[in-house]
Write a structure and sequence with these properties.
Shape: globular
Helix content: 25-40%
CATH class of the largest domain: Alpha Beta
Mean pLDDT: 92
Number of helices: 10
Strand order of the largest sheet: 8-17-16-13-14-15
Largest sheet: 6 strands, mixed
Number of domains: 3
Strand content: 25-35%
Length: 324
């Protein structure tokens, strides 16, 4: 059987570009090279290219997502998108791949666009009974007084960009004097800002993927940050304890997995997702849904896959082959 030609698509145009490159390295190390031919494809505003050893770059033809190497015209069979942020997490790249007929690993345009927009996603899921924090949104040019925000959400609260991830531009606000600077910081990352009430409890995260043959609800991870919250340094500089499986009762674990599975179906997801929650005295509260979760060797999903007794290579194969 001919090896399928796989593009691991990374890069992007957000603050999370470096995280995307790390995820691509992880995926490249996991995938079965005896079954698949793999290339790293970098997508940036300034150009799309295949990245080869020795910093060699070959331009990608956007007409059909192909390239020429050593006189051979190579067209990919499949794209594994691991861009965190635009254009890989918000549906834009998915729309392009749909138009040229190239299968890929993650959610389609609508689910990607909705989950990327935290406020829209959480308000939508709230209508299905999913518990979320009280929140409000500001668009560029809109303002809110500190008094109005504090009356609506209380202190402490979180102020963050509405789109994006890795906690860039996110502030845990404890004092009224910090409200407006936090809004400015979040606006520096994007055109929409959300403020959310603070939920005190245990943070957990749960991965899930479904194919035509299997539904896999992965073990739940407990997140214990050494910092004020699970910020960039906690995520990528080790200032956190990640405990898989989480130290919670089995019934609570089952509930979290069931809610994750329900969210997967409501949103019409595909491939691997990760849903982040806070367990409070009143129950399970959704923080956000990640449809292109981090895939470094130490990221949550590879941890959960290993704890489930699976290998990332086999998981990737299941998801890739499901498209064919």
């Amino acid at each position: 059987m001919d090896q399928r030609k796989i593009a691991i698509v990374c890069g992007g145009d957000s603050s999370e570009m470096e995280v995307s490159f790390k995820s691509a390295e992880g995926l490249n190390s996991f995938i079965d090279k005896t079954r698949y031919q793999v290339w790293m494809v970098v997508i940036r505003k300034e150009g799309w290219y295949v990245s080869l050893p020795g910093d060699k770059q070959i331009p990608v033809d956007k007409n059909d997502f192909s390239f020429v190497q050593d006189g051979q015209h190579i067209r990919f069979d499949y794209a594994w998108i691991t861009i965190h942020g635009t254009p890989g997490e918000n549906g834009r790249l998915q729309g392009y791949f749909d138009m040229i007929g190239l299968p890929y690993n993650c959610c389609g345009v609508l689910a990607a666009a909705m989950t990327f927009n935290k406020f829209t996603c959480n308000q939508y899921l709230k209508g299905f009974g999913v518990k979320v924090a009280e929140s409000l949104m500001l668009r560029k040019g809109q303002t809110i007084t500190t008094k109005q925000l504090v009356e609506a959400l209380g202190l402490p609260c979180f102020i963050k960009p509405n789109v994006g991830g890795s906690s860039f531009g996110t502030t845990k606000v404890k004092n009224e004097a910090d409200v407006q600077p936090a809004i400015e910081r979040a606006f520096a990352e994007g055109p929409e800002v959300i403020a959310e009430s603070f939920l005190k409890g245990t943070e957990v995260t749960c991965g899930c993927y479904k194919t035509q043959k299997v539904t896999r609800l992965l073990p739940v991870t407990e997140v214990v940050s050494q910092n004020e919250f699970f910020d960039y340094d906690a995520k990528y500089k080790g200032q956190v304890s990640e405990i898989t499986p989480a130290r919670i009762p089995d019934k609570l674990r089952d509930n979290i997995q069931q809610v994750t599975s329900m969210i997967y179906d409501i949103m019409g997801c595909k491939g691997i997702i990760r849903a982040d929650f806070i367990i409070t005295e009143t129950g399970i509260n959704l923080l956000e849904v990640n449809t292109t979760p981090g895939m470094t060797a130490t990221s949550f999903i590879p941890q959960q896959v290993a704890t489930a007794g699976l290998s990332m290579g086999d998981v990737m194969q299941e998801i890739i082959e499901d498209s064919f």
